[in-house]
Write a structure and sequence with these properties.
This protein has helices spanning about 1-20, 25, 45-60, 75-80, 95-105, 140-150, 160-175, 185-195, 205-215, 260-275, 275-285, 295-315; strands at about 30-35, 65, 90-95, 115-130, 150-155, 180, 200-205, 220, 245-255, 290. With about 325 residues, the protein is α/β, with parallel strands linked by helices.
Length: about 325
């Protein structure tokens, strides 16, 4: 009965939206909510807030970022999947969107039946870094050597995050015995790494850039296909292990039945926001690579990423339950 009621509400929302005159000109007529399925302060939250500011200016309506963390991103994601498809509830998510359905026995949502892809806004790499005291590790080959004799713990921002997936992919390629120590977000993982609680980390790039300059962390490698401008002296993992690449995606989605005309409008307005000089500058400072594509291209990208990570999860056995 609960599921039926939700279905009827969604149908009613679609009918009301389609019946509204001048859809293209009228929308939005009230604040738009962008759900980020993680706690505030992380990379996804930053992307959402930068875009929300620009879209608020374009739409002349508040765009409110709503952080709904929990269950590795599943709670906030499922919330949007069941929202009315009227464009007023959107999802700004990361690669967990396509990896969690494989990692969890029941992620609580269907990535392809409950969502309409809008746009891939950007991607970012993961950086492998160490505590300064861990002098035995200065390269990815050193990590393999250390992790063959005994399990090697590493900090990640959480299960299913880009850091976790990058480590799992590396583990399947090299057979290194890496042991995840998952934290509840990028901040706690970085705190643990700085304090020496865990001496190795697979984490987001921006905090490591600043901390490496002060000598508090030592970056070892980045998971992008090539070196990053913000860390030009740090090699890509692919320089030693050809073909290795892990990008964390940041994408905008809507509930599945959202009208295509509205999806295209949000896509075009987001693309315009991504092209603004101040957004481009801030993204570059934070080591985000701006993408921008059509809803159809984003859908194809999500399918390919889902297939890639389903195989990694299967090969590594890295299931949550």
């Amino acid at each position: 009965m609960h599921t039926v009621a939700k279905g009827l509400l969604r149908i009613a929302g679609v009918i009301a939206l389609l019946a509204a005159p001048g859809l293209g000109a009228a929308w939005p007529e009230k604040p738009v909510r962008v759900v980020v399925p993680f706690a505030a302060g992380g990379p996804a939250d930053l992307v959402a807030r930068l875009l929300a500011q620009k879209l608020s200016e374009q739409w002349r309506q508040p765009v409110v970022v709503d952080n709904r963390g929990g269950a590795g991103g599943n709670i906030g994601t499922a919330l949007v999947g069941q929202a009315l498809p009227d464009g007023y509830t959107l999802l700004l998510t990361t690669s967990v969107f396509v990896s969690n359905p494989s990692l969890y026995r029941n992620a609580g949502y269907d990535a392809f039946k409950e969502f309409a892809p809008i746009i891939l806004t950007s991607v970012s790499a993961t950086v492998v870094s160490r505590h300064p005291s861990y002098t035995a590790v200065n390269s990815m080959q050193d990590i393999v050597q250390q992790a063959r004799s005994a399990p090697l713990p590493y900090a990640s921002p959480g299960i299913g995050t880009a850091g976790h997936l990058a480590a799992e992919l590396f583990r399947t390629i090299t057979q290194a015995n890496l042991q995840q120590v998952p934290y509840k977000g990028a901040g706690p993982a970085m705190t643990a790494l700085l304090g020496g609680e865990v001496r190795l980390g697979f984490t987001a790039v921006p905090p490591v850039v600043a901390l490496s300059r002060s000598g508090k962390l030592v970056p070892i490698a980045v998971t992008s296909m090539k070196r990053l401008d913000v860390l030009p002296h740090v090699p890509a993992v692919a320089e030693t292990y050809p073909g290795f690449e892990v990008d964390n995606m940041y994408g905008l989605l809507a509930p599945k039945a959202t009208p295509l005309a509205l999806v295209r409008k949000i896509n075009a307005d987001t693309l315009a926001a991504l092209k603004s000089p101040d957004v481009r500058q801030r993204f570059a400072q934070e080591a985000f690579e701006i993408r921008g594509n059509t809803p159809e291209e984003f859908a194809q990208y999500l399918r390919a990423e889902f297939t890639k990570w389903a195989k990694v999860v299967r090969d590594s056995g890295a299931r949550v339950d």
